[in-house]
Amino acid sequence: MKQQTTDERPGIAAAIVVHEGRVLMVRRRVSEGQLSWQFPAGEVEPGEGREAAAVRETREETGLTVEAVKLLGERVHPKTGRLMSYTACQTLGGTAHVADTEELAELAWVTLGDMPEYVPYGLFEPVQDYLDGALSA
């Protein structure tokens, strides 16, 4: 495998999964800088769309079957420098659990009020706006 430069690394697709007034968060076994808790996410594979990658990563990491509802936005993540896309997803089936035990240590369903404990540096504005509406409904 050849060494990739930052510019050649695939983008990361994150799934924003809201269910019963909470959003799904996962804690990685290995933190990425300050990132410990985050949304289910992973690299977009060649030929794969961002929304499809978010759906696949959610299934691989948590065992949940979800469908993409809406692409919320993209940015270069300020902590990792990776291109990130964020997709709102709804659950179709399954029970969330740590399915990828090599990557994940635990998961949690988090309320809007508890979010600062999990993500103390704040969320990407389009994600925050979406959660403000989805979790206060």
TrEMBL record:
The keyword Glycoprotein does not apply. Residues 7-132 form the Nudix hydrolase domain. One of its GO terms (molecular function) is hydrolase activity. Its cofactor is Mg(2+). Pfam families: NUDIX. It comes from the Bacteria. Belongs to the Nudix hydrolase family. This is NUDIX hydrolase.
